[in-house]
Each structure stands twice: as structure tokens, then as C-alpha cells.
Amino acid sequence: MMSATSTLALTHFVTLADSFDKDKVTPGVLGFIVFAVIGGAVWLLMKSMNKQMKKVNFEEQPEEGEAGTTASAAPAAAKPKTG
């Protein structure tokens, strides 16, 4: 059995449902929650990526004048040992 207040509340929802356009699709609360979770995940991934990129120790290639000294040492170290 329904009480008078619940019946009155349901009649208000029924009138809202009748005025609702059934051809219009909206994302609703679930769409907002999914969008917010995806946004939060992207933010956390970007924060983690920035943290990892700060750890990278990048050194540029030596300039032309310095290339001769390092290039001559590299082939000597790369020779395979035989026997």
C-alpha cells in the first residue's frame, strides 16, 4: 500500500516524464561520472609522465670538434675478441 505522500511524489514524476522529449538523448549522471573518471585518469597519467620525464638524463650528441675524439675511441672498444 502506498501512502499519500509517495503517491503525490510519484504523480509529480509522471508529469515530468510526460513532458520529457522521448526523441532527445542525454548522457545524464552516468555520462558525467564516466567523463570525470576518464578526465581524472588522464590527469594522473600526465602527472606520472612528467615525473618520469624529469628523471631522464638526456645528453646531446657532441659537436663536430668533439666528435673526432669520441669516434676514434668507439671502434677500438667495439672490436670482437677472437679466440
From TrEMBL:
Start and end residues of each stretch annotated as Disordered: 57-83
Biased composition (Low complexity): 67-83
Keywords: Membrane, Transmembrane, Transmembrane helix
Domain of life according to the entry: Bacteria
Transmembrane segment boundaries: 29-46
Protein known as: Ribosome associated membrane protein RAMP4
